[in-house]
Each structure stands twice: as structure tokens, then as C-alpha cells.
Amino acid sequence: TNFNALFNKTFDETKPNYPLVSMEVPSSSSDENYAWFGQLPSMREWIGDRQIQNLSAYTYAIKNKDFELTIAVKKNDIADDKIGIYKPLIQDMAQTAKRHPDELVFSLLGQGFENKCYDGKPFFADDHPYMKGKTQSNKSTKKLTPASYAEARAQMMIIKGENGKSLKIVPDL
To answer: Other CB atoms closer than 10 Å to residue 160's CB: what's the count?
Structure first.
């Protein structure tokens, strides 16, 4: 009970970083087929008949994996109420568990030049399609300097969706 309370308290107090760069989506099965619609078209002045817009649909399948971290605790240490000697270890386990998604997400970002995105291109690529016959880049190979950072930031702010509308990305990290 003490280990459980200590673990849960530390787990709840630990703040991960992955929510800053990713979105958490609940899963209720062994794998998920995530589906979403493409970019919503722009508003237009209503003149004449309605113009029904067809949205593009996309999917991306991800297989869930199980993770665990188990340690042995001597029965006599529990019986002798030596919980204190395990406190730092239990706290570290809770922090490790809470930050495990950080390892997964940031590892994926690091592999973004090789791993494929939903469009079949690497996540970071020079030629992501966004409209029929048009591509755009979310990749730079320039050395990081104040000027190249400003250029990359400006480039992020003009990335467009499938219908040519800005995605309204405001880099804040």
C-alpha cells in the first residue's frame, strides 16, 4: 500500500514533455486504425446553389505495445517496515513510467528523416504533397544559426494543407 501510494503520488507530480509536441489519442484495442478528414475548405460567399465540398479521408494504423518495469522487494524488508530504503527507487520508477512516452515520441522525431508518414514520405521531407501536383518541405539541412532558425520558423508558418490554405502553425518551442 505504501509503495502504491508513493508511486501514484510521484507519477501524478511528474510532468512529461511529449504533450508539447504530440497529441494523445485513446486506444481500446490491440491496434488502432486512426482515421481523419483532410483540411476544411475556406468559407465562400453564398451566391446561387450550395457547393457541397468533399473532404479527403486518411488513415494510419498503429499497433499497440505493452511496456512494464518490475523490481523485486524482499519480503523481510516489507515485514520490517524498511519502506524508506526503497523510496528513491519507487519514485524513480514512477518518473520513468510517466516519462516513458517522452522517450517514444522524441525517439520517433529523431527517426523522422527515415520513418514514413501517412503520405508514404519520411516525416521530415522536401516533397510532401499538399495539393494536386504541388509539394512543400518541412525539412532543412542548414546549420542552426539565428538566421536559419528565423527562416525555418517562417517556413513553418506558411505550410499549407491539402486545399492550399495555411495550417496556421505558430512555432512556440
So the answer is: 15
What mean pLDDT is reported for the chain?
A: 88
- Share in percent of the chain as helix, strand, coil (round to 5): 35, 15, 50
Predicted structure pTM score:
0.73
Q: Are 62 and 30 in contact (CB under 8 A)?
A: no
Strands (E), the chain: 31-37, 57-63, 128-131, 134-136
pLDDT for position 82: 73
CB 118 within 8 A of CB 60: yes
Give 19's contacts (C-beta < 8 A, 6+ positions apart): none
The pLDDT of residue 86 = 86
